[in-house]
Amino acid sequence: VLAGRQGLNVTATVLDFDGRAASTSKVFQAEPDFKVGISRHPERFQVGEQQELKLVVLDRQGKKIPQGVLKAEVLQKTYSYVAKRNEQGDLYWEDESVWRRAFSGEVSLKNGQAAFPFDCAQGGRYLLAFTYTDAQGRQFTSATLVRVEWEYLPEEKRDRPYVPLGLWADQPAYKPGDTAQIQVTPQGPVSYYLVTIEREGVLTTQVVPGGKGPLTIPLPITPEYGPNVYVSVLGLSPRGDFPVLPGRYDTEAPAFVWGTLNLPVLKELEGLVVKINPGVQELRSHPGGQVTLDLQVTTPKGQGVQAEVALAVVDEAVLALTGYKTPTLDQLTRFDAPLGVFTGELRLSLIHQTPFYPARVEPLTGGGGLSAELLSKLRRRFEAVAYFNPKIITDAQGKAQVTFTLPDNITQYRIFAVVVDRGSRFASVERHLVSTKDFYLEPGAPGFFTWGDKFTFEVNALNATEAKGEAKLKVRAEGPLSLTVPEPAAPLGAKDSAKLKVSG
């Protein structure tokens, strides 16, 4: 764990006096002195495709180690029969997975970087592990899993006139001004590549010389490429050996390879800044008290904006049961435009047209809205939800104010707001509101008694003030119930609690 190879998943559960539980989990990962970095790569690729992994070693300050040696290991997942005995002593065989070393070697760091070419002729799952050993003999390892697959062609695609070309990008998404590094992994030699950037039409074209093995093609990303573009690469494979002898097949005739890749391009949108009671450091109230919230929506430069705010005040203990997170609208900017370019030749279609289904733009409130019949069946009061308003409109200065009355819960509420303006800007914010009393009791009495019962239960006295003293408990019963307090007083410190017993 301290070397950074493994982490710990720590889960903590807290029970209150009434037995209500709240849990949270976090991962503990020790910070190693050195980290071995592995470049991005496809998780799956075909047999015969060569992948080249870039390797770096970073220290705690994030600086590259200029020189050094990395140990490279390739482990293949296989299966083996293992002899075991059951509880009766009988021998039986069980099939278990085993990781076997398929390759072991060294790669050198030059100018802070190393390259490891990986080409596999057998399908399966592989673990690529790279270990760096420092001057003190300590080892630091990083590993990645890959799956090498045999190519499977459905019946309808077995007569395709091209060989698929493997393409992958160095990043999952790009911003305007970035340069995408597209790696091309052909299974044979290629003379030239025709590289086009497409969407509703052909945006750019270029011809790139080919060769044997992988090739990296840099593509600058411009603002016009948002929200996404498609990279199409068509390569021409040269003529190989000509079949001059009888009985030979023309397996090395001129052909072409083709592949396409979708590149998401994320534009930076100017967000909004939302504040809830900006002049108050801590929000506090008491059960049944009236709360006023001041909302302020501005641009990052501080200018007020008229916007629509969805505001909710919900019991934090209820939200913790499901791990609820304050919603954000970031995913509204993540969508792909369809490809409007078809690559083909005169005889057979390379990409068949897929009809686009009609696109519908519905309001964010859920389409057609709520009918009167549904509204009549809605429960209007939830004790866990202290306040909810899905449509608060701020003024021209970006300000709004709401007032509501808290339920009688003694708890912590989460106040969260989701904001959107008339354009495309949005934001989310959350704060906590503590609803408590200076002094209160939590009786732990059972739900019912029967004739002849003798019992003892506890009453929890909680002091939320800075004062300390003695807690004195008096009880009164009605009907045939008799209650006594064996110890009517108990010391009670500041911000503390005391348990007093009641018998009967």
TrEMBL record:
Instruction: Select a single GO molecular function from the record's annotations and give it.
Output: endopeptidase inhibitor activity
Q: Which residues form the Alpha-2-macroglobulin bait region domain?
A: 165-321
Ranges of residues in domain Alpha-2-macroglobulin: 385-475
Q: From which domain of life does this come?
A: Bacteria
Q: Name one Pfam family in it.
A: A2M_BRD
Annotated signal sequence is none
Q: What is this protein called?
A: Alpha-2-macroglobulin family protein
* Gene source species: Desulfobacca acetoxidans
